[in-house]
Amino acid sequence: MENKNAQYSSVYRAREIWTDPGQPRIFAPAGINTFAVMLGSGKPEPTPHRYGPGGAVIANQTPYLIDAGDGIWRAVANAAIAHNEMMINALSPNNLTRLFITHLHSDHAAGLPSLILLPWIHGRTRPIEIYGPIGVKNLVESLLEADQADIEERVHGPEQKDDIGWRATAHEIAQPGLVYSDENMKIEAFHHPHGGFKQNFGYRFSNNERIIIWAGDGIESDSYLEAARDADILFSDASPVNNELVDTPWRGDQKNIAKIFHMQSRRLAEFASQANVKTVVLHHEQNYSEPYDPDILVNEVKQYFSGEVVSARDGDVF
Ligand SMILES: [Zn+2]
Ligand SMILES: [Zn+2]
């Protein structure tokens, strides 16, 4: 069948750009104090229905943000409004002070200026602490430098805003291992192979209630397997079993390159079985099926994994 959208720029051809996945849902068990919320389930494609990559683990009303894709500040509000009793206080501007970046691909960091500066306009009086691979310091400091005119006007102009809430401190993670801990949460980074990056981290969030793995983009490895063992929830990217079957922007030789960047659905299923994970949540899906089948990757994973599998929508709570 002729692709009716063939006349459009290739970025608009994929049906997922056009498809609203629906209202956010709650999968977290009632009464639990540790849960994860999908802030942005998208990737670089500019669908209006999914924000760029990002999420948060929330424990005892304290949020730990992961990645800052395009639209992250709106994605935070989207989740807060959808589940206001559960998280509107947790996601108040003054609580958005801890961010863990998986890697420095721009789709995972394009929202940084908004996450650093816009909550300050709306009441954040504390600096944001940003953890990530080597290079994150340069990124954060360059962004602040680039925004000097805004900061100076707000601090020294008629608003007389406080001189602290705009600040951001970058912490470069030299080695995988323990990155952060407080009374609610222990956060460990593990190495996660992804294209040509020397440093690409997945994060393991654990406390006495749950183990939550936010893997970000990438493929399987021994250290990833070790980190994911017995996890309650594994957030993973996913690409199709057979890239040749779908109309993907990864064309020609690029189709093979996709396999070293993103977790293939069948390999993900086998990995999750081996790691004894309970629930797999897909986001950043490379779903270019035509005609568009929103469940194609979920169904591929389910063929080889007996646990729960969910294709995330923005605002879903797990
Ligand atoms: Zn990436
Ligand atoms: Zn990405």
Quick take:
It contains 9 helices and 13 strands.
How does this structure look, described?
The chain has about 325 residues and is α/β, with parallel strands linked by helices. The chain has a single domain (about 25-175, about 180-310), classed as 4-Layer Sandwich (Metallo-beta-lactamase, Chain A), CATH 3.60.15. Helix content is about 25%, strand content about 20%. It has nine helices and 13 strands. It has helices at about 70-80, 85, 110-120, 135-145, 150-155, 220-230, 255-260, 265-275, 295-305, and strands spanning about 35-40, 55-60, 60-65, 100, 130, 170, 175-180, 185-190, 200-205, 210-215, 235-240, 280-285, 310. It has a seven-stranded mixed beta sheet with strand order 7-8-9-10-11-12-13. Strand 9 (about 200-205) and strand 10 form a beta hairpin. The site of one zinc ion has 4 residues, from loops.
Count of individual beta strands:
13
- What is the count of distinct domains? 1
Strand content: 15-25%
The string of secondary-structure elements, in order, is EEEHHEHEHHEEEEEHEHHEHE
Q: Could you give the distance between the termini? A: 38 Å
Biggest sheet strand line-up = 7-8-9-10-11-12-13
Secondary structure category: alpha/beta
CATH superfamily caption: Ribonuclease Z/Hydroxyacylglutathione hydrolase-like
Instruction: Classify the fold: give the CATH topology.
Output: Metallo-beta-lactamase, Chain A
Q: What would you report as the Rg, rounded to the nearest angstrom?
A: 19 Å
Helicity level: 10-25%
Q: What's the story with the biggest beta sheet?
A: 7 strands, mixed
Top CATH class? Alpha Beta
